[in-house]
Amino acid sequence: MAEDTTTTSTEDQQEGLERLLADERSLRSFTEQVLDCRQIELEVAEVENKKLLKKIDQLTRELSESKAQLLDAQAQVKSKDRNLQEAGDQIFRLQSQREDITESDARDAYKALCDKIQRWVENRLPITLEAVSSGQSKKPPPAQATKFLSLLREPAKRCLSVNLGDEYHVVAAIMYYLWLAFFSKPFYCPLDDSTEDATLLWLLGIESAMAKSRSRTNRKISGRGYLVMLTGESQMPSNAANGEAKPCWR
Q1: Phi/psi class of residue 12: alpha, beta or left (left: φ > 0; alpha: ψ in -120 to 50)?
Q2: 172, 125, 148, 112: which is closest to 235 by C-alpha?
Q3: Are 144 and 236 in contact (CB under 8 A)?
Q4: Which of 36, 66, 127, 198 is most buried as measured by Cβ atoms within 10 A of its Cβ?
Q5: Where do the coiled-coil regions begin and end (predicted)?
Q6: pTM of the model
Q7: Each residue of 177-211: b (16+ CB within 10 Å) or e?
Q8: Is 150 helix (H, G, I), strand (E, B) or coil?
Q9: pLDDT tens, 110-169?
Protein backbone atom coordinates (compact mmCIF):
# COMPACT_ATOMS: atom_id res chain seq x y z
CA MET A 1 0.00 0.00 0.00
CA ALA A 2 2.92 2.31 0.73
CA GLU A 3 4.27 1.64 -2.72
CA ASP A 4 1.02 2.66 -4.34
CA THR A 5 1.09 5.93 -2.46
CA THR A 6 4.65 6.63 -3.54
CA THR A 7 3.84 5.81 -7.13
CA THR A 8 0.87 8.14 -7.14
CA SER A 9 2.92 10.98 -5.68
CA THR A 10 5.63 10.50 -8.27
CA GLU A 11 3.10 10.58 -11.09
CA ASP A 12 1.60 13.78 -9.71
CA GLN A 13 5.01 15.37 -9.56
CA GLN A 14 5.74 14.28 -13.11
CA GLU A 15 2.45 15.69 -14.38
CA GLY A 16 3.16 18.95 -12.54
CA LEU A 17 6.59 19.16 -14.14
CA GLU A 18 5.14 18.43 -17.57
CA ARG A 19 2.53 21.17 -17.13
CA LEU A 20 5.23 23.55 -15.94
CA LEU A 21 7.37 22.62 -18.90
CA ALA A 22 4.44 23.15 -21.26
CA ASP A 23 3.78 26.54 -19.72
CA GLU A 24 7.44 27.48 -20.07
CA ARG A 25 7.38 26.42 -23.70
CA SER A 26 4.22 28.47 -24.35
CA LEU A 27 5.74 31.49 -22.64
CA ARG A 28 8.98 31.11 -24.57
CA SER A 29 7.09 30.75 -27.85
CA PHE A 30 5.02 33.87 -27.08
CA THR A 31 8.15 35.78 -26.07
CA GLU A 32 9.91 34.76 -29.28
CA GLN A 33 6.91 35.94 -31.35
CA VAL A 34 6.88 39.26 -29.52
CA LEU A 35 10.61 39.65 -30.04
CA ASP A 36 10.27 38.77 -33.73
CA CYS A 37 7.52 41.37 -34.19
CA ARG A 38 9.58 43.93 -32.33
CA GLN A 39 12.61 43.10 -34.47
CA ILE A 40 10.57 43.59 -37.63
CA GLU A 41 9.30 46.94 -36.31
CA LEU A 42 12.86 48.01 -35.51
CA GLU A 43 14.04 47.04 -38.97
CA VAL A 44 11.19 49.01 -40.61
CA ALA A 45 11.94 51.99 -38.38
CA GLU A 46 15.62 51.75 -39.28
CA VAL A 47 14.76 51.83 -42.99
CA GLU A 48 12.54 54.85 -42.47
CA ASN A 49 15.29 56.55 -40.47
CA LYS A 50 17.74 55.96 -43.30
CA LYS A 51 15.28 57.52 -45.75
CA LEU A 52 14.77 60.47 -43.46
CA LEU A 53 18.52 60.91 -43.05
CA LYS A 54 18.95 60.94 -46.83
CA LYS A 55 16.14 63.48 -47.12
CA ILE A 56 17.74 65.61 -44.43
CA ASP A 57 21.07 65.45 -46.22
CA GLN A 58 19.43 66.48 -49.49
CA LEU A 59 17.58 69.36 -47.83
CA THR A 60 20.79 70.43 -46.11
CA ARG A 61 22.60 70.54 -49.45
CA GLU A 62 19.71 72.47 -51.04
CA LEU A 63 19.72 74.90 -48.13
CA SER A 64 23.45 75.43 -48.55
CA GLU A 65 23.02 76.02 -52.28
CA SER A 66 20.15 78.43 -51.63
CA LYS A 67 22.25 80.34 -49.12
CA ALA A 68 25.09 80.53 -51.64
CA GLN A 69 22.69 81.76 -54.33
CA LEU A 70 21.25 84.32 -51.91
CA LEU A 71 24.71 85.61 -51.07
CA ASP A 72 25.54 85.79 -54.77
CA ALA A 73 22.28 87.62 -55.55
CA GLN A 74 22.90 90.06 -52.71
CA ALA A 75 26.39 90.70 -54.06
CA GLN A 76 24.96 91.29 -57.56
CA VAL A 77 22.34 93.67 -56.16
CA LYS A 78 25.02 95.62 -54.32
CA SER A 79 27.13 95.72 -57.47
CA LYS A 80 24.21 96.92 -59.59
CA ASP A 81 23.27 99.52 -57.00
CA ARG A 82 26.86 100.74 -56.99
CA ASN A 83 26.94 100.83 -60.80
CA LEU A 84 23.60 102.64 -60.88
CA GLN A 85 24.84 105.18 -58.38
CA GLU A 86 28.02 105.70 -60.39
CA ALA A 87 26.03 106.07 -63.61
CA GLY A 88 23.71 108.56 -61.95
CA ASP A 89 26.68 110.53 -60.66
CA GLN A 90 28.23 110.43 -64.12
CA ILE A 91 25.02 111.66 -65.76
CA PHE A 92 24.74 114.39 -63.17
CA ARG A 93 28.33 115.46 -63.85
CA LEU A 94 27.73 115.47 -67.60
CA GLN A 95 24.60 117.60 -67.36
CA SER A 96 25.06 121.24 -68.02
CA GLN A 97 24.66 123.41 -64.98
CA ARG A 98 21.57 125.56 -65.40
CA GLU A 99 20.85 128.28 -62.94
CA ASP A 100 17.35 128.39 -61.54
CA ILE A 101 15.38 131.55 -62.11
CA THR A 102 12.91 133.26 -59.85
CA GLU A 103 9.22 133.63 -60.58
CA SER A 104 9.77 137.31 -61.33
CA ASP A 105 12.55 136.46 -63.80
CA ALA A 106 10.28 133.90 -65.44
CA ARG A 107 7.48 136.47 -65.85
CA ASP A 108 9.90 138.98 -67.35
CA ALA A 109 11.33 136.38 -69.72
CA TYR A 110 7.85 135.28 -70.80
CA LYS A 111 6.81 138.88 -71.40
CA ALA A 112 9.98 139.42 -73.45
CA LEU A 113 9.13 136.31 -75.48
CA CYS A 114 5.62 137.58 -76.16
CA ASP A 115 7.01 140.95 -77.23
CA LYS A 116 9.50 139.32 -79.60
CA ILE A 117 6.78 137.17 -81.17
CA GLN A 118 4.54 140.21 -81.53
CA ARG A 119 7.30 142.20 -83.24
CA TRP A 120 8.21 139.25 -85.45
CA VAL A 121 4.62 138.89 -86.65
CA GLU A 122 4.26 142.63 -87.13
CA ASN A 123 7.41 142.70 -89.27
CA ARG A 124 6.90 139.52 -91.29
CA LEU A 125 3.16 139.20 -91.73
CA PRO A 126 2.59 142.34 -93.87
CA ILE A 127 5.42 141.33 -96.20
CA THR A 128 4.03 137.84 -96.52
CA LEU A 129 0.51 139.03 -97.16
CA GLU A 130 1.79 141.48 -99.76
CA ALA A 131 3.71 138.70 -101.50
CA VAL A 132 0.61 136.55 -101.51
CA SER A 133 -1.55 139.37 -102.82
CA SER A 134 0.88 140.12 -105.66
CA GLY A 135 1.15 136.46 -106.65
CA GLN A 136 4.85 136.19 -105.82
CA SER A 137 4.35 133.30 -103.39
CA LYS A 138 3.01 129.81 -104.02
CA LYS A 139 -0.09 128.31 -102.55
CA PRO A 140 0.51 125.89 -99.63
CA PRO A 141 -0.66 122.28 -99.77
CA PRO A 142 -3.72 121.38 -97.66
CA ALA A 143 -1.53 119.60 -95.10
CA GLN A 144 0.31 122.81 -94.22
CA ALA A 145 -2.91 124.79 -94.01
CA THR A 146 -4.42 122.10 -91.78
CA LYS A 147 -1.38 122.14 -89.55
CA PHE A 148 -1.64 125.89 -89.09
CA LEU A 149 -5.38 125.92 -88.57
CA SER A 150 -5.15 123.13 -85.99
CA LEU A 151 -3.49 125.68 -83.73
CA LEU A 152 -6.47 128.01 -83.87
CA ARG A 153 -9.15 127.58 -81.26
CA GLU A 154 -12.78 127.35 -82.24
CA PRO A 155 -13.65 130.95 -81.22
CA ALA A 156 -10.76 132.17 -83.37
CA LYS A 157 -11.89 130.11 -86.35
CA ARG A 158 -15.33 131.71 -86.13
CA CYS A 159 -13.66 135.14 -86.30
CA LEU A 160 -11.36 134.53 -89.27
CA SER A 161 -13.29 137.00 -91.41
CA VAL A 162 -12.86 139.87 -88.93
CA ASN A 163 -11.03 142.80 -90.53
CA LEU A 164 -7.37 143.25 -89.45
CA GLY A 165 -7.50 140.06 -87.40
CA ASP A 166 -4.74 138.11 -89.17
CA GLU A 167 -2.00 139.40 -86.88
CA TYR A 168 -3.85 138.28 -83.76
CA HIS A 169 -4.61 134.86 -85.24
CA VAL A 170 -0.96 134.25 -86.18
CA VAL A 171 0.31 135.37 -82.78
CA ALA A 172 -2.27 133.15 -81.06
CA ALA A 173 -1.27 130.16 -83.21
CA ILE A 174 2.41 130.65 -82.42
CA MET A 175 1.77 131.01 -78.69
CA TYR A 176 -0.45 127.93 -78.67
CA TYR A 177 2.24 125.96 -80.45
CA LEU A 178 4.84 127.12 -77.90
CA TRP A 179 2.50 126.08 -75.12
CA LEU A 180 2.07 122.61 -76.62
CA ALA A 181 5.76 122.16 -77.35
CA PHE A 182 7.19 123.68 -74.19
CA PHE A 183 5.05 125.24 -71.49
CA SER A 184 2.57 122.35 -71.13
CA LYS A 185 5.31 119.82 -70.42
CA PRO A 186 5.88 118.96 -66.75
CA PHE A 187 9.66 119.01 -66.93
CA TYR A 188 12.30 121.23 -68.47
CA CYS A 189 12.92 120.41 -72.12
CA PRO A 190 13.99 122.28 -75.24
CA LEU A 191 11.50 123.43 -77.81
CA ASP A 192 12.85 120.90 -80.30
CA ASP A 193 12.69 117.17 -79.61
CA SER A 194 15.61 116.55 -81.98
CA THR A 195 18.93 118.09 -82.85
CA GLU A 196 17.37 119.86 -85.83
CA ASP A 197 15.81 123.31 -85.62
CA ALA A 198 12.32 121.89 -85.99
CA THR A 199 10.64 124.81 -84.24
CA LEU A 200 12.32 127.42 -86.43
CA LEU A 201 11.60 125.39 -89.55
CA TRP A 202 7.96 125.06 -88.56
CA LEU A 203 7.64 128.80 -88.02
CA LEU A 204 9.24 129.40 -91.40
CA GLY A 205 6.84 126.86 -92.82
CA ILE A 206 3.91 128.92 -91.58
CA GLU A 207 5.23 131.90 -93.47
CA SER A 208 5.82 129.77 -96.54
CA ALA A 209 2.32 128.30 -96.32
CA MET A 210 0.81 131.76 -96.07
CA ALA A 211 2.88 132.94 -99.02
CA LYS A 212 2.00 129.95 -101.23
CA SER A 213 -1.72 129.99 -100.60
CA ARG A 214 -2.59 132.18 -103.58
CA SER A 215 0.49 132.02 -105.83
CA ARG A 216 -1.14 129.96 -108.57
CA THR A 217 -4.26 132.06 -108.89
CA ASN A 218 -4.91 135.35 -110.60
CA ARG A 219 -7.14 136.65 -107.85
CA LYS A 220 -6.12 139.10 -105.16
CA ILE A 221 -7.32 138.30 -101.68
CA SER A 222 -7.25 140.80 -98.85
CA GLY A 223 -5.54 140.05 -95.54
CA ARG A 224 -8.97 139.67 -93.92
CA GLY A 225 -9.94 136.85 -96.26
CA TYR A 226 -6.60 135.06 -96.27
CA LEU A 227 -7.12 132.91 -93.20
CA VAL A 228 -10.68 132.19 -94.38
CA MET A 229 -9.18 130.76 -97.55
CA LEU A 230 -6.74 128.65 -95.50
CA THR A 231 -9.71 127.10 -93.75
CA GLY A 232 -11.24 126.08 -97.04
CA GLU A 233 -7.99 124.75 -98.45
CA SER A 234 -7.31 122.62 -95.40
CA GLN A 235 -10.63 120.84 -95.95
CA MET A 236 -10.20 120.13 -99.66
CA PRO A 237 -8.63 116.85 -100.93
CA SER A 238 -5.41 116.92 -102.94
CA ASN A 239 -5.52 116.64 -106.72
CA ALA A 240 -3.72 113.41 -107.57
CA ALA A 241 -3.19 114.44 -111.17
CA ASN A 242 -1.16 117.60 -110.63
CA GLY A 243 -0.37 117.40 -106.90
CA GLU A 244 -2.13 120.71 -106.18
CA ALA A 245 -4.81 121.49 -103.66
CA LYS A 246 -8.25 122.49 -104.86
CA PRO A 247 -9.22 125.81 -103.28
CA CYS A 248 -12.77 126.10 -102.12
CA TRP A 249 -13.35 129.47 -103.75
CA ARG A 250 -12.92 128.28 -107.36
Answers
A1: alpha
A2: 148
A3: no
A4: 198
A5: 42-90
A6: 0.38
A7: bbeebeeeeeeeeeeeeeeeeebeebbeebbbbbb
A8: coil
A9: 899 899 999 999 998 888 878 877 777 776 677 887 888 888 888 888 887 787 778 888
